[in-house]
Specification:
single chain, Helicase, Ruva Protein, domain 3, 21 helices, 5-stranded parallel sheet, Rossmann fold, alpha/beta, Beta-Lactamase, 17 strands, 549 residues
């Protein structure tokens, strides 16, 4: 009865060990320590079959040195251990000194009786899982009597079945971990590919300057500030910086600072401890902590409360923070990329944004131009969104009417790329033929198109064109092959002058009004000699000769 109670107590302890960890070595080590303490077992080992080599290798051992463990390799059927695995039957040796099957390959056991006449017994039992022999569990102890040895054998066989279950769970977990790692590697590779610089659409000069900047800063840890109107793709650029940096395998965490205010945003950024405020029912990890080693993207950073700006400044300077309601300081290695559609310098002037935080964020500034200033990118963006929404809606639309394309290129796009994306999705979803037409566009874009046609049909445009053509013919000497260029230059010059007059001489506004890029307008200024005229007019107004001016 005492033996039965002892075995029950041992099995209870070992079951707790098995339920406490998935680490196979820890399971074996703690199990053998229980047996050593409760049954006096001196040494133990777990030998597993290597499916690739067919060898039996010692996976874990207690009471053996690393050198002894390295020698414990057996062929199937070799020695007591190899025989147990080959036959699936337990073997008990009362005295290892009298059994030729005991190889003592580790050299750890004495093969002659000790001075007090004690002999060493050896017990080896198979480890079976799903009908297969996958290894063996062995232990040795000082021999007492045959009955105790048989009881130890029976107990060891039960423990071997426990370990077999642990092996099975370990194999399942290892396989799932490998699948997860492979999925993670695949996702990381896809993200790297998706956010490669050459996958971001933009051939306008302003976008080429953006690409050049992010290519230079990606490999650094410099804080970046991305400026641009809503819908220009600030988050896309932030992801491109992250996934082309040496932090690409670490987290990219986004926080919309405009969606939360006060304590909620502070908790979101830094985390909180249980009871720190109403509703804090448990500890919470903040986004800074979650992004450790990676990148934190602060979208709409210009909306953060002034009080919270002080704490954000400290993290940027010291790379440390405290959770809400906690006094423990936490260190983090996080790269900050911030974005806003506000003029932060203006916000600083109005006292709504800290000047020191602005300069801390404004290490590298990236300005994303609005879509109306890079109209040459519109056709490529249309193709991209057409492919995307064809795939999502199982359609094969490839044709766009000429009228629709002209409208999309001329439209000012106040919502930028996001508005174009929404317009293309609507057109693809609502289309019933294989051609996209103007009728599928949103109301605002169709209204712009109708207004444009009305203006083009007005007599003023016709009269201006006829007048300029007649003026060119009358004023310039007719030379074969030159009259067309003369008329075009006169029309361009008149349109630019009218646009500048309408926009109070502000070039960027005039470019938007004409529907051309600012760089294109500057180029036209040089080609048409408008810069010289500006200088002459300014000099005349100041009564100073142009050469001096």
């Amino acid at each position: 009865m005492e033996r039965a109670e002892l075995e029950l107590s041992i099995l209870n302890e070992i079951s707790r060990v098995l339920g406490s960890t998935l680490d196979l070595h820890a399971v074996f080590d703690q199990t053998m320590r229980v047996l050593a303490d409760r049954l006096g077992m001196e040494r133990g080992s777990m030998v597993l079959l290597d499916e690739l080599t067919g060898k039996l290798r010692t996976e874990a051992a207690l009471g053996l040195t690393p050198e002894e463990i390295s020698r414990a390799i057996y062929d199937m059927g070799e020695g007591i251990t190899g025989t147990v695995v080959a036959t699936g039957e337990s073997i008990v040796v009362p005295d290892i000194a009298t059994d030729e099957r005991f190889l003592n390959r580790t050299g750890a056991r004495p093969l002659t009786p000790s001075g007090n006449g004690a002999t060493t017994s050896f017990i080896c039992v198979p480890i079976k899982t799903e009908g297969r022999i996958v290894g063996a569990l062995s232990a040795d102890k000082t021999f007492r009597d045959g009955d105790a040895l048989k009881s130890d054998q029976r107990l060891l066989e039960i423990i071997a079945s426990f370990i077999a279950q642990a092996l099975k769970i370990h194999a399942i977990v290892a396989q799932e971990r490998e699948e997860w790692q492979e999925e993670k590697r695949s996702m990381s590779a896809n993200l790297r590919s998706k956010y490669k610089f050459d996958n971001i659409i933009g051939s306008a000069q302003a976008m080429l300057e953006v690409f050049d900047t992010i290519a230079q800063v990606a490999s650094s840890r410099a804080t970046c500030l991305i400026l641009g109107e809503t819908g220009t793709g600030k988050e896309l650029i932030a992801k491109a910086i992250h996934f082309n940096s040496n932090r690409a395998d670490k987290p990219f965490i986004r926080v919309n600072c405009g969606a939360l205010t006060g304590t909620l945003l502070e908790s979101e950024l830094f985390g909180h401890v249980k009871g720190s405020f109403t509703g804090a029912i448990k500890d919470k990890m903040g986004r800074f902590e979650a992004a450790n080693g990676g990148t934190l993207f602060l979208d709409e950073v210009g909306t953060i409360d002034t009080g919270l700006q002080v704490k954000l400044l400290r993290v940027l300077q010291e790379r440390e923070f405290e959770r809400v309601g906690d006094n423990r300081t936490m260190k983090v290695d996080v790269r900050i990329i911030a974005a806003t559609n506000l003029d932060l310098q203006e916000e600083v002037g109005k006292g709504r944004f800290r000047e020191d935080l602005f300069y801390r964020l404004n290490v590298v500034t990236i300005f994303l131009p609005p879509l109306r200033n890079r109209r040459e990118d519109v056709p490529r963006l249309i193709d991209f969104f057409l492919d995307k929404f064809n795939a999502e809606n199982a359609k094969t639309l490839r044709k766009i009417s000429k009228e629709m394309l002209n409208v999309l290129v001329r439209y000012p796009w106040p919502g930028n790329v996001r508005e174009l994306e929404n317009a293309m999705e609507r057109a693809v979803v609502l289309s019933r033929s294989d051609t996209l037409t103007e009728e599928l566009l949103p109301t605002a874009i169709r209204a712009f198109s109708q207004q444009g046609r009305a203006n083009m049909a007005s007599e003023g445009i016709d009269a201006l064109t006829r007048r300029l053509a007649e003026q060119s013919i009358n004023e310039f000497e007719l030379r074969e092959g030159q009259i067309y260029d003369m008329v075009v230059r006169q029309v361009e010059k008149a349109l630019i002058e009218k646009a500048l007059d309408r926009c109070s001489g502000v070039k960027i506004k005039a470019a938007d009004f004409l529907g051309i890029n600012r760089n294109t307008l500057n180029k036209k200024f040089k080609e048409l000699g408008l810069e010289a005229e500006e200088i002459a007019e300014a000099a005349a107004a100041a009564q100073v000769p142009p050469a001096v001016k």
